[in-house]
Every structure is written in C-alpha cells, then in structure tokens.
Design a protein that fits this description.
mainly alpha; 12 helices
C-alpha cells in the first residue's frame, strides 16, 4: 500500500463527501438547527412520533425501543466519523445531522424512522470496533473509508427527505381519490402503506448495498492496518534486540 495510492483514495473520498454535502439544504433553517442542536437522533425520533397523533402508541413504543438499543453505538459512531469529516473534508456537519433533518421534514414519520433504523442496523452490523478505529485515526485509507460512510449517509438522507415527503402526499391523494373503496374494503392504513413500500426498496437498494460494502471496508481496513502495525512493531523489537 503506497503513500501515493493512499492519498489518491483519500482525495477521492474527500471530493465525494463535499459533493454529497453540497446537495443538502445547508442554508435552510431546519437543517442548520439539526447541525447545531445537541439532541440525539433518538430524542428527535421521540419528538416527531409524539407529533404524529395518528400513529399507534404501540408502534411508537416498539420503534423507540429498537432505537434505544443503539444509544451508545450512535454516539461512538459520531465520535469516529465526525473527526474524519471535519479534519479532512473541512465540513462542520455531524454524521447524524442529515438523519435528523429527514425525521423533521418527513410527512410520514413512522415509516421514515423505520427506514432510518434499517440504515443504522446495516452500518452497525459491520462497524463494531470503535476503539481500533480511534487508535488508527491517522491512517489515510481508514480515513477515506470513514468519509465514504459519511457520504453514503448524506446521499441516503437527500433521497429519503424527498421520498417521505412525496410518499405521504401519495397516500393522502389515494385516500381522497378512492374514499368509498377504502371504507367498503376496510383497507387499513397499514395495507395502504404497503402499497407504497416497494418503491423505497427499488430506489434505495443500491445505497444500502453501498453502505454495507463501505462499512465492511472500514472494519477490514482497520484490522489489516492494526495487524501491519503489530508486525512492524515486532520487527522493530527484534532488530533492537540484535
């Protein structure tokens, strides 16, 4: 792994992160609030679900319980990625700020929260070794991998914010267009939501695949770098003893 190659990979990751960030409404009041506020993702989820009066309380409780399992993980993730983003890409944007923005602007809070939870689960499955990531923070290839995760989260957020605005409008339109049919068939809101579920997978499948791959890249890069440093240390120790 040459220095030149590492720098090229890092430069590409920096350019991608800046390009993705430019697509966010970073001049808007709601987004600026998400960047500066101290509220966690879980606190924002609680707020928006409370505001959605039609949302069943049991479903809200279930979603919140699933989010709370990731309380520590969300904080650790932010600590590791935010340093890379601020130091190398020069962006003062915490990784979870775009996610909070999606939750706030969505007109379909419960489904937005469900898909964000899916995003978090996808990353966390391949992103467990925070102590190693922090120790190897200066490695340029690892930094590039962390920047790629930030880019993926931002790209997800840009699409999700648009999707969950449009999706809610579509459901309302369907209700207005076929009110008699809905009442006659007892077409539940859950069934109606399922009508609009497929487009999400169609539109976001590639992003989830990319997130999964980049999360694994972070972990495998960290392990490889740690093993290399350990081997170099052993070699240096042997030379010193001779």
């Amino acid at each position: 792994m040459t220095t030149g190659t590492s720098q090229t990979v890092q430069e590409q990751a920096i350019a991608a992160a800046r390009s993705a960030f430019a697509r966010l409404p970073n001049g808007g009041e709601v987004f600026r609030e998400c960047v500066s506020q101290q509220d966690s993702v879980i606190e924002v989820v609680k707020t928006v679900l409370r505001a959605q009066e039609s949302h069943a309380s049991k479903t809200s409780t279930r979603i919140l319980q699933r989010f709370e399992k990731y309380t520590s993980w969300l904080q650790n993730m932010s600590t590791v990625v935010d340093v890379a983003v601020q130091t190398h890409a020069g962006l003062a944007c915490p990784i979870w700020a775009p996610i909070k923005f999606v939750l706030k602007v969505s007109r379909d809070h419960s489904n937005a929260a469900e898909q964000i939870l899916r995003l978090i689960q996808t990353i966390s499955d391949s992103f467990p070794r925070f102590e190693i990531y922090e120790k190897l923070g200066a490695d340029p290839v690892l930094q590039a991998s962390l920047l790629n995760i930030f880019t993926d989260v931002v790209e997800f957020s840009v699409l999700a914010a648009h999707f969950f605005k449009q999706r809610a409008v579509g459901i309302v339109f369907y209700h207005r267009l076929f009110p008699c049919y809905l009442s006659l068939t007892c077409y539940s809101s859950v069934r109606l939501a399922n009508v609009f579920a497929r487009p999400f997978d169609d539109r976001f499948g590639d992003i989830f695949d990319r997130i999964r791959r980049h999360a694994k890249d972070v972990d495998s890069t960290a392990i490889a770098t740690q093993l290399l440093k350990a081997a170099e240390h052993r070699t240096g120790t042997l030379r010193w003893r001779r």
